[in-house]
Amino acid sequence: MLKRQVFNPSTELNDMKIRMAYLEWYKKWSKDNKIGYYDNYKNASHTSDLEITKHMKALACYWEQIVDEPEKRPHVGASLYSRWHFAGTNYSRWHFAGTNYQRMIEPLFIAEYYKEDHRRDYINQGRAKHFKQLEQRQFKETEKLASGPNNLKKQNVASILTEDPCFWAHFEEARISCKFLSSTESSIGEKESSKDNLIEFGNYVYSLMKNYAVSPEIFLPQSSFMQWWKEYKELLGTYCSRLTDLIKDHDKYANGKLEFP
């Protein structure tokens, strides 16, 4: 009888690095075309998007096995760190790889989820288990989003990945709230709830910008965020004045020179 092959993350690591490099290229290529890679993938208008799907699914399978391994085989080590440490890969490298993977890849899964117009609430209804597990592990090691920006974050903001991997899920829900608020068929309760959700999302975006924790790619000319922003301003008016002032100066934000009150 053939023995079940034991998953060894180290042997597949180089292949995963190549796949991540391809996604980095896709991100840069999208930006050069004045659109973020989230919107580019959601629109799925290029043959390269099919390749992206293959790479993201392979990466997801790899990380699913990594986070599941300690649960499936607890007798070989209580933590992922111990397995990788003895394989010659130190914990800080694993932590960086996991964080980078989630921030790069989860937005693509969010884009795929919301391609279906009827879908809602990705975080509770569509989010894969391994993304939740990775977030729990990383939260113990990294500073919270609410922490203040430092000079290094400001200097590097043009090239960062948004710190909250679920940013686009929050955005899509805000987009849906705009539709409810502007629809003549929505009830008074739906309109009030939608307005509250939009105000909350605006505060969330303000917090991310203040902490230099969101990628400037959301401000690209063809970004769905900027298209949505026009509608948001019309619907909420003075409720979004604080955020409006910041977004007007998004070029300064991209250069790390935007000052916050």
Automatic annotation (TrEMBL):
One of its GO terms (molecular function) is carboxylic ester hydrolase activity. It comes from the Eukaryota. GO terms for biological process: defense response. Residues 22-238 form the EDS1 EP domain. It holds the Pfam family EDS1_EP. This is EDS1 EP domain-containing protein. It comes from Fagus sylvatica (Beechnut). The lineage of its organism: Eukaryota, Viridiplantae, Streptophyta, Embryophyta, Tracheophyta.
